[in-house]
Amino acid sequence: MTTKTIWLLCLLSPACTLPRARAEVPAPLRPDLVLRLNQELFETQGVQEALDAGKRRLDPGFHDAFLDFRNDGIHLKFTQSLLWKEFEFDIILRLLWTGRNTFEAHLQKFDVSGKLLLFHFKVDLKTLKAQLFQFFKLNIQVVLLDAIDLKYVGNTADQSLVFRGTVNVGKLVPLPAAADLDLSGIQTQDRLLVLELARRP
Amino acid sequence: MVDHSKQDLKGGETLKTYNKQLDDFFQDSAQTSPASTLNHDTGVQSGGYSPVGSFGLAEGYVNDQLQKFISELLRQSVSLMGWKLDIKLKFKENHDVMVDIDMSIPPGFFGMPSTDKDLLTYHITSKMEVLSTPHQGYLIFKLPPNGTLFKRANSDIPPVAIHTELLSDAVAIARGYLAALSGDMAGFDAAAALLQKQMAALKLQMDQLNKERDRKEYMKLQAQFRLFELQKEATEIQRGQFKDIAEQVHTQMFSFVGDKELNLNNLLAARGNSLVLKVNLEQITPPNIYKLVAGIRLKNIQVEDRDGHKELYFYLEGPKAKKKV
Lengths: 201, 325
Known about the structure:
The structure holds two protein chains of two kinds.
Chain A: H1 3-12, E1 16-17, E2 33-38, H2 45-53, E3 62-70, E4 73-82, E5 85-99, E6 102-112, H3 115-121, H4 125-144, E7 148-152, E8 161-167, H5 169-172, E9 181-189, E10 192-199
Antiparallel strand pairs in A: 1-6, 2-10, 3-4, 4-5, 5-6, 6-8, 7-8, 9-10
Chain B: H1 15-27, E1 37-38, E2 53-58, H2 59-79, E3 84-91, E4 96-105, E5 120-132, E6 138-142, E7 148-152, E8 160-162, H3 167-181, H4 186-208, H5 215-257, H6 264-267, E9 268-271, E10 274-278, H7 287-292, E11 297-304, E12 310-317
Parallel strand pairs in B: 1-11
Antiparallel strand pairs in B: 2-12, 3-4, 4-5, 5-6, 5-7, 6-10, 7-8, 9-10, 11-12
């Protein structure tokens, strides 16, 4: 399915769910250590200041962004200005653990106000994914410093794939005794980002 | 109420300051956590407390780490005295932590000669309530006054309850040992100095005696002098052995907590029936998160897997989030 076809489908339906390639995910390990981060950590003044400072990496029309961890994924709401019109985006980004210390973020669902106009301006899905990546990266960098490395991979055939993350466990849990742990799961729950670590089998 | 958030426990903290802060804490009523469970799929905790961040350790993982680092460490250090020691923790849903200790002591340990070759084996079970100071990394292991049971292994004799108010005495006795394990050999030096002083006093007494006339008394003092001499030599040998162990302890502890400056006495204190362990949260939480979750709260949470497996997690929690989960 091409980007344009997806957009067309999205314009015809109330909310769009993107088809996602089924990744071969290994069986999750039972976590030995669990890190649960409340959304409040992402709503501090520090995060806001970093977002303001990093805004040059985002499209100037991208504003009023709001991140919300929910059971079904990360809900992102933001407004995109296009000429005289503002469009409100409501997006669900799902985190998927893919293996040792790695995870992927997939664009699960999105809804846009003023679809017809948006269609005329042919807003590209790739641009949207790049915006989401930059916004999420800024948030993660402030809260978890360089414990998680995010790489944009939104140009692949998988229309839903936005970015891949690699976790540096040594920076996430500085305890030397935790050196034998790997990321074994990542998920979002209501107002929580949950990182699970397990010993290497 | 004491504002613990204003207390700075880093850097050149003295034991006096540390003890003062603990006193303040014990004057405040120690906080207890309501029993809670966690729904693994929704992340919702019962009990109504939603921390800004939390850090959970699985029971199995904690015990494996304990075996790997702490027990091994203790085994090495107590093996000098012929002891055997095994420690295991069990988390309970009501936030208690059960400690099982299997301890074997050679019969001659108490200073009396023994021909019995079998080790005396004991089993100690203790129920601990784990608390934390509100704003700094102190873990408080509170033992109920009669909550520690002592039992001879492989015996039908019922276990005996040990009154844990004696804990302070035990820690006081252990201070020299902990200092030696931390690399501080002042205790051995003091023991050697005392023996030297006693030997000097004996020498003076012996010089005042007439070797021929007070032969019996002289021989007695000479035997005592020789005993002190051997004890002093033994102290020197022990000092060397402990020095080696202290180096191993330092390596082990460094690989466990990454602490370059190790003083076990600063990590451990006792107040009545409570044992206080000072934990540096900065060493076990991500650097940026630590600043936000500096106030800790502890609880055991039972997590049920999607496949029905239940595991208890020991959680260190940050301050309450403003918005309720």
